[in-house]
Amino acid sequence: MQQKTDATPARPKVEVDTSHRYGDLVVHEKIRFDVHPNEFVCICGPSGCGKTTLLDTLAGILKPTSGHVLIDGETANPKRQSISFVFQEPSTFPWLTVRQNVATGLAIRGTQRAEIDRRVDEILEVVGLKGAEAFYPYQISGGMKQRVAIARAFATDADLILMDEPFVSLDQPTRERMQQEVLDIWRRRRRTVIFVTHNLEEAVFLADRIIVLSAKPGRVVADLPVRLPRPRDQLSPDFMELRARCMAHLHPRAAGAPVTSS
User: Fold this and answer.
1) What are phi and psi of 82, to 5 degrees?
2) Helix (H, G, I), strand (E, B) or coil at 235
3) Which of 126, 70, 80, 81 is nearest to 102 (CA)?
């Protein structure tokens, strides 16, 4: 008997096929895409196209008007799946130290103390917070607070990590440093990440794929693989060419380019 040699393709980690409206207001319409295990996907789009609504749907916080979001083949549900969310503004608990903040998700899941200590030590080292473990949020900068939120998200065995413009309030040097730190954590921890950003340079620097949404109602107008080797040079011709392609999809009339997904 001839053996089958073709490997069965792995099921996507996340399968999205949704539309959502608030009364007569259509926020996004027939948004369809898949995300594969351990993939880093950036979503870009103009203000008001429903990016945050889409993230709420992916998290299972919001039920889509029609369609579905599946994680490992099951409907997204934060009660059954471990989904971590990193918000625009740092979300730290002011009454807890840096170490206690990072350990919160692990403690809620009932992780053994020795394992909590091991994971927290590891992730604090990666994000450059060793030595700041005993500080409270009021004693550290905004950039450090965002590091705490990111460390907390990656410390758990989350099924999915959702990041909603987490660096938008940071100055440019801190933003660039945080981008590299997130990539370092992602490479070490190997998690599936969906990252919303308005910044096209950020998307090209971070992503395995970039999904571009249209203006309201939000639709997928491009799904672009990023094949640039890491670390990425933002001044290289290939980097700038891909950024220009993203811009052409984001603002097709201004760019004079057709909207396609190729």
Assistant:
1) -95, 105
2) coil
3) 126
Q: Is 241 exposed, middle or buried (0-12, 13-18, 19+ CB in 10 A)?
A: exposed
- Cβ–Cβ < 8 Å for 68, 145: no
- For residue 254, is pLDDT > 60? no
CA 233 to CA 240: how far, in whole Å?
Answer: 9
The Cα 76–Cα 12 span in angstroms is 13
Instruction: Say if residues 27 and 21 touch (Cβ distance below 8 Å).
Output: yes
Contacts of 237 (CB under 8 A, 6+ apart): none
Q: Are 220 and 28 in contact (CB under 8 A)?
A: no
Is 79:59 a contact under the CB 8 Å cutoff? no
pTM for the model stands at 0.88
Rounded CA gap, 80 and 45, in Å?
30
Q: Determine whether 177 is exposed, middle or buried from the number of CB atoms within 10 Å of its CB (0-12, 13-18, 19+).
A: middle
Phi, psi for 10 (deg, rounded to 5): -65, 140
Check if the beta carbon of residue 183 is closer than 8 Å to that of residue 175: no
* Closest to 82 measured CA to CA, from 59, 63, 64: 59
Per-residue pLDDT tens digits for 193-250 = 999 998 999 999 999 999 999 988 899 999 999 999 999 999 999 999 999 999 999 8
Decide if pLDDT at 259 tops 60: no
Closest CA to 193 of 158, 167, 221, 232: 158
